[in-house]
Design brief:
The protein has 5 helices and 5 strands. It is an alpha/beta fold. The protein binds [cytidine-5'-phosphate] glycerylphosphoric acid ester.
């Protein structure tokens, strides 16, 4: 059985995330998704996250693509997870090309092309414009 792992914040889950998860699942037989804890995101500079960890986990669960969902809480956890779950493939979007090459020591690393034209920031800003539109 080929085990695949991927990580993300998955704030305001959109089709870019879903396409990534679908392709990650397609790389193997069993997909583990690591959802970032709120503090972990703050520490890595992601301060605009709108949804709580539980909401983001629930959104990933609802896709039906994850066989297992875990929480990413600390720097260096990826290596621990790959060992703990006996992972064969680590994958993430192409916005991270090169950043996770160090994991090649532990498993295969695959960068999947990012979906163009959609991001959590865009969804957040559209939400904001919509709210302002209603208020006007
Ligand atoms: N993604 C994508 N296309 C988009 C937006 C995101 O393929 N238009 C991918 C990202 O490359 C990532 C996943 O969807 O693989 C989740 O994206 P984010 O929630 O933005 O998470 P990210 O900050 O990339 O965290 O330890 C955390 C991970 O390293 C990745």
């Amino acid at each position: 059985m080929v085990k695949v792992i991927t990580y993300g914040t998955y704030d305001l889950l959109h089709y870019g995330h879903i396409k990534l998860l679908e392709r990650a699942k397609g790389l193997g037989d069993y997909l583990i998704v690591g959802v970032t804890a709120d503090d972990f995101d703050k520490n890595r500079g992601k301060i605009n996250v709108q949804q709580s960890l539980m909401e983001r986990i629930e959104a990933v669960r609802a896709t039906g693509l994850a066989d297992k969902i875990i929480v990413e809480e600390y720097e260096g956890q990826k290596i621990d997870d790959i060992r703990r779950y006996d992972v064969d493939i680590f994958t993430v979007g192409s916005d991270w090309v090169g950043k996770f090459d160090y994991l090649n020591e532990y498993c295969k690393v695959v960068y999947l092309p990012r979906t163009e034209g959609i991001s959590s920031s865009e969804v957040r800003s559209k939400q904001c414009k919509l709210r302002m539109g209603f208020a006007a």
